[in-house]
Amino acid sequence: MRSVVVLLAVLLGAAPAFAQTEEAYVEPPALTPVVVDLLWESDGLTPPFYQGRSLAGPGSRVRLLAMPIFGKGAAAIAPQNLVYTWKKDKTVLGSLSGKGKSSITVESPLRYGAEVVSVDVSTEDGSATARASARIESIEPFVALYIDHPLFGPLFHAGLAEDANILESEASLMAVPFFAPARYPDSPGLVYEWRVNRNIVAPSRSTPSRITISAAGSDGVALVELLVTHATNFFFEAERTWNLSFFSGSRGGGGGSDPFSAPSGGFSE
Amino acid sequence: MRISQSTLYFGAAAVLVVILGALLGWFFFVRSQNTVTEYIDSARGFNDDAGGSAGGGGVFGGGASSGGNAGVGTATGDGGGAKAPRLWKITTTPVAGFAFRGKTSQLSFVERSSGNVLSADPEKTKVSRLTNTLFPKTIEAIFGTADAVILRSIGSDGSIETFAGLIATSTDTDPGGAPGTLEGVRLEKNILAIAPRAGSTTVFFIATNSAGQAVGSLSDWRGGAQKVVLSSAIVGWRPMYLSDGSLYILQKPSDATDGHLFKIRQDRSLERILGGIPGLVALPKARSSAVLYSTIEDGVPVLLGQVSASSTPVTFPVRTIADKCVWADGTALVAYCAVPRNPVGRNFLRTWYAGMVHTTDSIWKLQVSAGTAEEVFVPPSDSSLDVSHVTIDSSGSYLAFTNTKDQTLWMLALNE
After folding, report:
1. At CA B183, angle to CA B180 and CA B188, rounded to 5?
2. CA distances from B399 to A187, B77, B149, B411 (A)
3. E strand map for B285-333
4. How close A47 gets to chain B, by Cα (Å)?
5. By the CB < 8 Å criterion, does B272 face chain A?
6. What was the ipTM of the complex prediction?
7. pLDDT tens, B312-371?
């Protein structure tokens, strides 16, 4: 997905004016530099304070911004005075192209797919042109699980590994489906199917991305399975499993039994 | 009915006894509350053990133990006294942010659990509480000056909340005094990124407008006198507002996708500093055109330095990202970086930012002009450090950073 910045710098205009006499040749003023950067990101879900870029998950939308540099100093041409021609693969996006149209928003590629979006930027008289393109690949969605600590809040710095130890007898867990077509983890449209030790756990309607697991004062392993889908986007699906070992500090109670399969629940919302 | 004089005396004596009893009860109640406070501070890791000793009964349990030349110690309470060990584990619980206090080696930091501001003094191995105003579950704290701090948290509706606070009572003039309050204002919701100018109370922040575009504004500490200096269809920016007043925006990085660094000029135009670099993380230096930056090549981080805009970048013989680096103050182009001691995996940036992977780092000193790197500190084996948010004091004597594994706060003396 490396965007390729191509510098064309097609400087047309007046050809060198060779005089009939022996007058000195005068170079016409060149418009330099002529370059365009193509920036992109998706509007897919990332957790608050996430320092990385949102990538193109299935169903998300991709924002692209052309940032041209046409000349410098007083000779520079303002970006809004340049003409932008956008293409998705080889198809010209006519309605999105035109003078001053330096940014567009397009759908992400379909799952497992990739698309090349390019932009030609030129002066109104066509005397200078630059092109940039970006290959945008659909990224495989993944879901991360974090502890929502009662004192510290969500521990986004410590995503739970597939085999993780939790030094508490109870933990509130928060799932984040990265790059999902949603603004928040609990946005309408995202569907969470939680299972703990093969038992379906129905999360709260208002906060379906969270469950609380209680080991009820004993130690044990909870097999947590999560499938996240989207109600209207059938291409979005993220699935993951964790083995969470709870250590309550009171080892006498649980032994080797499964404290989570007790009829009394062991789970709470 | 006539009341005898002796009855009056008995009555007065009884009232006196009741009053004395109430005062005695109040005394014991207050004393027990002090005990509770001390107990809570101990639980936060500020125990009364001398620095360098083992222990530190933090919420996460278990402080670090001493470790030979690379001694590790935990924070003390009000006692303090001795100089901190070379590697000082200041907290055993997560912190939200920190900064050195002006030109001193004292470090202000914010507890995640309470939002309280505390100060750590490495010369005395002492931690003092500067504020007691409660801001529970503070996720991020950013200091402008020593007494101006921005606290960020997640609201009940999932929105990002931002509070710009000023410490009402400074312990600079009242060492050991009672904690002050943090007074300030709540800024607008869902500020995407915010950066105070280092050493001042001017702020640059990025929010989105109704069209979903990013709008970057300068403002005073209370969010007033706003002046828009950036409008962009791309919203994922990291702002950097340096002490010399220069303002940079870095597009949020991704491993295999090109990144860009721009400088916002006075006339609001953008000057392209770096661009078209996969996995770009950049660290411009104040009062200089030097930039330290990293890229990802075939899944491997590569660290480069550029002393000026026109110079050829030098590649350092260490494999790390600029997120783990800090420029030292002064005109010499010296930087310190934490370098993973083992190769990192694929998609390192994405997984590291998501907290899915962690590294074990050592500390290196970089001479950027020469393009050389020297390992200056290897943490003891019982202190596995995944370093982030590195900062350095003005004299270049101390590094402070968080261990990303648990967001605990650490300080390293460089000149020992």
Report:
1. 150
2. 41, 21, 20, 6
3. 291-297, 300-306, 314-315, 325-327
4. 8
5. yes
6. 0.83
7. 999 999 999 999 999 999 889 999 999 999 999 999 999 999 999 999 999 999 999 999
